[in-house]
Predict the structure.
Amino acid sequence: MPTSATGVPLLIVENLGKSFTLHLQGGLSLPVVSAVSFAVHAGECVALGGPSGAGKSSILKMVYGNYRIDAGSVQVADAGAMAEIAGAEPRLMLRLRRARIGYVSQFLRVIPRVPALDVVAAPLRAEGVAADAARARASALLARLNLPERLWGLPPATFSGGEQQRVNVARGFIGSQPLLLLDEPTASLDAANRAVVIDLIAEKKAQGCGLLGIFHDGETREAVADRVVDVTRFSA
Ligand SMILES: Nc1ncnc2c1ncn2[C@@H]1O[C@H](COP(=O)(O)OP(=O)(O)OP(=O)(O)O)[C@@H](O)[C@H]1O
């Protein structure tokens, strides 16, 4: 696999394939993608492109271990070696998520009764950062994303879509994982907050992180992506 000028590979996807089995339709098999191959290197942001239903989110979910991998290989840089995600034990997957792969999903999975500040600080706490320091960094990120301070102590369940997305973005960006997956991180945001997310992505790149994202908004994609991998060429 060639290494780009930007850095070492953080993610190598080779011949990845996925079909969904529809049990309610008599076990009908719905092929989604096959032979997906690309890599993400340190310091670059790669966008997954292609029309709705092409399989972009499914690829992100396989990389994060949320969807089972039917064929091929997904390897993530881990302590000088590459760890295989296909068939990974849950314990390995949890460790990789804590230390190597961050993920900003489209929607925040709300945890009942946990205030927004602690939702955001949680990945740092999992890395072993002390509670006060983790909260201080969470506050700084929420302030940058213009989340009103009166909301920080409240659980995000009743927040607006855009407020929840900003909590989700802050939670995804606070950690120090070198690979970050982004599923439409700016979809519900206004222009000012979209610009903050674009800056956060640029900062991660400058730190040597690799990012793999879906950006429906063309302007955002244009601003952050170093290249686009068109998923239609892998349609099954
Ligand atoms: N859990 C699932 N069970 C069955 N089919 C699924 C599942 N997840 C995705 N699919 C199907 O796989 C195909 C690809 O979906 P996916 O969400 O990956 O596409 P996408 O390119 O991200 O689309 P969009 O841009 O609309 O988000 C779709 O036809 C979808 O219906």
Q: What stands out?
A: The pocket of adenosine-5'-triphosphate is lined by residues 20, 30, 32, 50, 52-58 (CB under 6 Å).
